[in-house]
Amino acid sequence: SLRNELSNLDRKHVLHPSTNPKNQVDHGPKIIFTGGDGIYLNDIDGNTYIDGVSMLWNVNLGHGNKELAEASYKQMVEAAYTTTFYGYVNEATVRLAEKITSLTPGDLNTVFFTSGGSESNDTAFKLSRFYWQLRGYKEKKKIISLRRGYHGVTVAAQRATGIDAYRNFSGSTDPDIVNAKPHLTECELGDKNHPEYEGCIRDIIEKEGADKIAAVIVEPIQGAGGVHVPPEEYLQAVRKLCDENNIHLIADEVICGFGRTGKMFGVDHWEIVPDFMSVAKGITSGYAQLGGVVMTEKIRDEFAQYDAMLAHGFTYSGHPTACAVGLKNIEIIERDGLVERANTMGRELDKGLKYLEDKYTFFTNRRSRGLLAGFDLMKDPEANIPFDHSARAAGNLVDECYNRKLLIRPFDFEPGMNIVAIAPPLTISKNEVEKIIHIVDDSLTAFSKKI
Ligand code: PLP
């Protein structure tokens, strides 16, 4: 069969990202997708799944969107690819930059385009360091990032990532990146007696010296670290800390951007303006590979005086077809009110999760903003006792959901951590949210019988 043929070829010829290679080679691919529509995905065996995490939290418009396909086709037949090196440009790139910067807060008014999130973060690090160089600060190079932050897998983004498996993969290191120890706590507000002060961003700045630090990078809401919404004053405190110390703040909006959290950008929840903003994923809803770094006028003005070649850029920086898809994608998000929809459907999702939290004692700590949601599984939440790590609680629940044709994601990379994330396309209906909750409910019941 075609399934067997593709499976055998995959086992032999494809090395999969974020996958266990032995499993892959022994058992072949888990799903071979063939198509989709809205929140649904079809596979080669005739199954239909609900995509409960928008694949990698990026398919904001849902699957099978013909308008995006048409925008791509139209640009491809006209000028599929031209470069933006050497001062060349094309209409789609310019229009998209104008559109994005009309939506970003404050004076974030210039975009450097990339092909994805990792490239965007590496670019933000380099542009931040370059800015300080131009200003005469030769030593300002270090980047501070957070525990459980996820910023990608290129060498710099990898080292900024605060998840050990990714951070340490293949043993590469970059001494210019420091990972803060505490995780989204109020220690940044300045109380030196805070129990987690040691190793927090403020403490690192004091110890390393502000003259050695170029930037702090944070996700407004952490995604792959397990959907962590920061405490209310946190991002304002980090912004202030950066201002006081002449340090850039980079907001990694790769997941939060373009409506996912019920605002156009994650920082809009706390009304802060970063110096750089990394975007990718939802910028095209995954229909084309695109990312970008948006920077303030102050930073761009500094670069504008640099009278030599800016020696940074990707072959696909400002890819016309990807930009045309991005432009259409944002047009649809605005036209169809999808940011507001993420809010209203997010409230429905939260209602459903609250029902589950009330029903199951081991279901706890539900949190969400818009359609970015997560919850914990714990043996005894009252007494703060986690499930035994070997029991794979989150993985088990996600398997139960998978058996019922719902795709969601477990996060269990630290002992005692059993987090499950739900982040469906922003186009989801109330009825479809209820379907997801219903499947998770059945899966929790099955799970509770096993543990
Ligand atoms: N930053 C965040 C917050 C992400 O979630 C991701 C990917 O999941 C990245 C960066 C890396 O993006 P990419 O995989 O497009 O390189």
From TrEMBL:
Membrane-traversing stretches: none
SUPFAM superfamilies linked: PLP-dependent transferases
Alphabetical keyword list: Aminotransferase, Pyridoxal phosphate, Transferase
Keyword Nucleotide-binding recorded: no
Annotated coiled-coil segments of the chain: none
Superkingdom classification of source: Bacteria
GO molecular function terms noted in the UniProt entry: pyridoxal phosphate binding; transaminase activity
Pfam families reported in the protein's UniProt record: Aminotran_3 (PF00202)
PANTHER family documented for this protein: AMINOTRANSFERASE, AMINOTRANSFERASE CLASS-III
Family assignment from sequence similarity: Belongs to the class-III pyridoxal-phosphate-dependent aminotransferase family.
Name by which UniProt lists this protein: Aspartate aminotransferase family protein
Lineage: Bacteria, Bacillati, Bacillota, Bacilli, Bacillales
